[in-house]
Amino acid sequence: xxxxxxxxxxxxxxxxxxxxxxxxxxxxxxxxxxxxxxxxxxxxxxxxxxxxxxxxxxxxxxxxxxxxxxxxxxxxxxxxxxxxxxxxxxxxxxxxxxxxxxxxxxxxxxxxxxxxxxxxxxxxxxxxxxxxxxxxxxxxxxxxxxxxxxxxxxxxxxxxxxxxxxxxxxxxxxxxxxxxxxxxxxxxxxxxxxxxxxxxxxxxxxxxxxxxxxxxxxxxxxxxxxxxxxxxxxxxxxxxxxxxxxx
Length: 247
Known about the structure:
Blueprint: E1 8-13, H1 17-26, E2 35-40, H2 48-56, E3 61-66, H3 77-94, E4 102-106, H4 112-129, H5 136-146, H6 149-161, H7 171-198, E5 203-204, H8 205-212, H9 216-228, E6 232-235, E7 241-244
Parallel strand pairs: 1-2, 1-3, 3-4
Antiparallel strand pairs: 5-7, 6-7
Helix pairs in contact: 1-4, 2-3, 2-5, 3-5, 3-6, 3-7, 5-7, 6-7, 7-9, 8-9
């Protein structure tokens, strides 16, 4: 059988990890050729929707790299990257994508060998997992969720919300925030799945529940919220059916 060669997308910050990759090249350090590098100014700019889209387009793995903690050229960019990756993994998990397929590493401009080692290790990890076989409907729902304003706002503001002296300042509040975030991601994925399913045509609550493998009462509860947000509307008939409201 032909050996599986993973397709890996690497998002690397301009100031540290990309420079580390450049050093590896200049030093003629060998590493797996599976990585396709995309340079970004800061690892914190790697939005969840970009990562989800990479998997939707056929990537077997995504590796995000940035400056070491405390060395970010934009002060807290790598902190933002860490939080975005944490929550993107949850979104991917809901869509049936193994969380290990999304990696996060810190590499400095002087760590050419470390860059090569990380690429080789990540490539072997993805090779051991095999080709990424995504459910197109679920990954589209994940992309819809990743673009949701609430999810993006909460991830971007987490550091401010958890600052000492703020409402979420203490450890117990941090745990509450994490639980709240998990609930938002779970709920939004269900709503995104409903919207994605309805793009195929009008459906009843029963049809949606069977298609999504979700209890009918959960479907009804989220349909009500989507209707209030003017995302879906009811079609009167027997049985009652719902459709997406065109933008």
